[in-house]
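Hi R.,

Here's the chain you asked about this morning:
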Amino acid sequence: MGVQQNKTPSIIPFVPHQGLLSPHLPEVQGNAEYQDRVEMLNFLEDLLRCSSVESEFLALCMQRYLSETEAGTTPSLKDLERHQTHSLLALRTMVLKSVLQETFRGLSLQLAQSPLFRRFCLCESIAVVKVPSKSELQRYSQWLPHEQMSCVINQLTCAALSGAPGDSRALGLECALELDVLLMDSTCLPANIHFPVDWVLLHDAVRTLMKSIIWTRNHGLKNRIEEPEAFLHRINTLCMEMTQAGKAFVTDSNNKRKAVLRKMKKVVDAVERHARIYRKLLDEQWEKTEVSRGRVDAVLRRMDNILEQLPVAKKQAHERIIAGRQFPNDEKILSLYEPDIHVMVRGKASGEVEFGNALLICEQSDGLIVDYELRREAPKADVKCLEASISRITALGCGPAIAVVADRGFDSKENREFLEKHDLFNGLCPRDAKELQRRKGDEIFAACQKRRAQTEGRVAIIKNVFIGQRCLAKGFESRQSQVDWAVLSHNLVLLVRMRQKQNAARGSELKAAA
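And the predicted structure, written out as tokens:
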């Protein structure tokens, strides 16, 4: 998340245009859930506009579009209008995707079927209805980079907190939220990979290279080679043998695993030789095919990615299985397709270790997420994340916090001194059991630790609801974008539900008074 709040640019290159002429939404009776959905989307639309999130997003999109335009050229008004329309569609579709917990394909279908969703995304029309395809929605998910998405999220955060007077009433809230207590927790955002067994990497390499060779042969470029499917059959057979050889009841299992790995390495070496020949053939004679150079470059990048890592993958498997030595963690390959993931020892019931990126989340007492960070680099210890997170929150200018609450992973002498220096109540769970027992007698500390349990649930909501049970995004930038949209959508939905609750309470009071 950005360390400072970027204000909306003074010159916003908006292009005024007439929206689509849309039909009136029919009145539907007999389904309370539908009425709740209509109310939520109406509140969401109102919140996007009143908080200036929509105008901030559009301004950043237009500025980025103008900065990427070639020097000396000026885009036409039609091009500016088209980009502005797509930017607005990107914001609303990605928020709707998180709320509905849909895939790209599922959201495209929902938009095609539902006039309610099309009206929210501003793509409803009396004439021909055009909805974004799944590929277009995927491009929308990375419409803005993380640095600019942080500015959009900060805009909503500052509008909801008391640091921006008057904004709370504009958002439909009776009173502004308070930046009183900061509750922190960290987790692992797992990557969509299988368990990184060394010899399985060899199977992945053979499969990817052979599929690229088959693709090249299907487009008319051939070189002398055995049937490519035969290599896939051999490596699959050897993988099954390796699995059986590793069973605890198999006698002399270590020697059998070594023998199977030697056979696998022979298959991998043969596939590597053929892949290098076909890679050169495709690069030099691609004009003979009917495909574009862009598609050829995509296949070449896929092959280069595997060929560059294959020597290390073979050495890693050899060291672990044949030599029986540990391989250095900083040189270890966890996935041939995801370079920016790390081993995280979590000690959870679901598994001792997890593979992915460290995600830090900080919320205030009402549940609004005020800071988050997804780390590309190797995860830092929780104890080293506290000071940087508080600095980012302070830079928002939404008023000083009162207390900081976190689990024992954040407790250290340096952090205790930092909190004391900045006059913040220390709600960190002590590592020392005796100190914890002593501090339990403090009512404020006990209440803070009791409230901290809800932060565990907040982390689960972000991971399992707004991101999804599995983060299917490929590459760190895609995972970062998914986290950005999840945090923005979570905060929007939180504010909408607070507004709905206030309206319901006000309605009950009026009924009681009548």
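Residues 178-193+339-472 form a domain with the Nucleotidyltransferase; domain 5 fold (CATH 3.30.420).

Let me know if you need anything else.
M.
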